[in-house]
Specification:
The protein is an all-alpha fold and 196 residues long. It has one domain (2-195). The protein is built from 9 helices and no strands. It has helices spanning 2-23, 33-61, 71-93, 98-107, 109-126, 130-136, 138-144, 146-161, 167-195. It is globular and about 65 Å long.
């Protein structure tokens, strides 16, 4: 319950900021509130995506296998923030004008990459329960490896989107490389152990 509250708290902060913005326009979100809100949701989506990927390595590193049970909640919140990021883009930046969205696909490839990542998140969120884990068996693990592809797409989306600087893109890419590296090393160790 505490983790749920912590992961939902950015929405509370945003709601308070929107309230302040309504009272004093321009003081919280600047000249383009829509863009700031969409960016804020996107930031939390990628943060929680990286946190989701980090749960298993952290549980192994600190010898806390019980931490793995929190991975699902991190993943579902990452998905929720990604959906809000996309809905924010549709409503506040594209004005629910699907002609403008199609136009954006052609002119801004980072939008296409972002939507591809979101579409891939859908089956992961839908099959995140233990029931689906039992039904899909080994295929569940294979399906959920898509999260690494999603991580790569999210980083590409951020790189192409960055205007003011690449600090965040570098940070999240470095985190992803570290997490993918840990997974690769672990797989090689496991293969070598089986070959003996």
């Amino acid at each position: 319950m505490l983790l749920f509250a912590v992961l939902a708290s950015p929405l509370g902060v945003l709601a308070y900021d929107v309230y302040r913005e309504v009272l004093m326009p321009g003081t919280v979100f600047g000249a383009d509130p829509g863009e700031e809100i969409v960016r804020y949701m996107g930031e939390w989506a990628i943060r929680l995506l990286m946190a989701t990927l980090a749960v298993s390595p952290a549980s192994r590193l600190f010898k806390r296998p019980q931490w793995v049970r929190f991975r699902r909640m991190f993943g579902l919140f990452a998905f929720a923030y990604a959906v809000l990021h996309f809905v924010g883009y549709l409503g506040m930046l594209a004005g629910f004008d699907f002609g403008a969205v199609v136009d954006d696909f052609a002119k801004r490839p980072y939008i296409t990459v972002g939507i591809a990542a979101l579409v891939m998140l859908v089956p992961l969120a839908a099959t995140s329960t233990r029931g689906w884990q039992r039904r899909l068996r080994a295929n569940w693990r294979r399906l959920h490896r898509l999260v690494y592809v999603i991580g790569v797409l999210a980083c590409i989306h951020l790189w192409w989107l960055s205007k003011a600087g690449f600090g965040e893109a570098v940070l999240y890419t470095a985190i992803l490389i570290l997490l993918l590296g840990e997974r690769t090393v672990r797989m090689r160790v496991r293969i070598a152990a089986k070959a003996r």
